[in-house]
Amino acid sequence: MDVPIAARRTIRFDVLTLFPGIFDSYVGQSLLADAIESGLVQVHAWNMRDWTLDKHQRVDDRPFGGGPGMVLMAQPVLDSVEAVQAKAEPLGKVVMMTPAGERLTQRVVEELAQEPRLLLLCGRYEGFDDRIRQILNPREISIGDFVCNGGEVPAMVVIDAVIRLIPGVLGDEHSATDESHSEAGRLEYPQFTRPRSFRGVEVPEILLSGNHAAVAKWRQEQSDKRSQK
Ligand code: SAM
Question: Which of the listed residues 112, 148, 157 should we mutate to test ligand 1's pocket, taking the one with most ligand atoms within 8 A of CB?
Fold first, then answer.
């Protein structure tokens, strides 16, 4: 979709991960691929291991105080953040993917979508040495109260939700304003497409009436009902 020059806004994501290959397929498909092709979105995945100073290429170590698992060391993470920041302007807003972060909601997505550049830090193993958080003071984001194996899928969730709000990424700009959570607590009405009848379940008559006012009223009622429920 063409966007007037004045309204043109782009966003760049720099993803710092130990598994950049996870993003190969994701960036090559569907809306994101189109958005990259049209220059509205950039996604760069960087391997934090490339910045380790350890001769065995290690990026993790055992936790002080004991306990299970391994912790991501501060040095490769901080060096990679600084090196990646230097690769482009402006400086990116640093976002740490962590189950301990603030919950990702549509409001948070809207705020993130205002940024021209986001650096998404993806943890692995037992997570980050806490000094990374103390030194970078990142925005800490959780996609929900559960634990994933790594920050890559949470980072994809952030990218997926944020790019919908960049003008021109969706075919129809109303798609993003007229959907669930665009207004706090509001859910979208049910949608139907052809055929009119499927396995004995009919499309509500009102949607076939051609009466736009009646359709709008029905949708509002359905949206209210769903939201209240
Ligand atoms: N030991 C950590 C804890 O109990 O909080 C969990 C570490 S988790 C196995 C490894 C990495 O996955 C985290 O550092 C984080 O980057 C990512 N991650 C896991 N669950 C997440 C969530 N709900 N939201 C955002 N990131 C998450």
Answer: 148
What spacing in Å lies between the alpha carbon of 17 and ligand 1's midpoint? 13
Largest Cα–Cα distance of the chain, in whole Å? 71
Q: How do beta strands 71-72 and 93-103 pair?
A: unpaired
The tally of domains found in the chain comes to: 2
Q: Are residues 155 and 47 in the same domain?
A: yes
115-167 residue pLDDT tens: 999 999 999 999 999 999 999 999 999 999 999 999 999 999 999 999 999 99
One domain, residues 127 and 199: no
Q: How far is the CA of 124 from the centre of ligand 1 (A)?
A: 7
CA 13 – ligand 1 centroid, Å: 20
Contact indicator for 226, 181 with CB cutoff of 8 Å: no
Q: What is the pTM of this model?
A: 0.94
Q: What gap in Å lies between CA 42 and CA 38, rounded to an integer?
A: 10
In a domain, 107, yes or no: yes
Note down the domain range covering 209: 187-228
94/192 Cα distance (integer angstroms): 40
Nearby residues of 84 by Cβ (< 8 Å), 6 or more positions away: 14, 16, 44, 46, 92, 119
Which residue, among 35, 15, 139, 169, has the nearest Cα to 87 in the 3D structure? Answer: 15
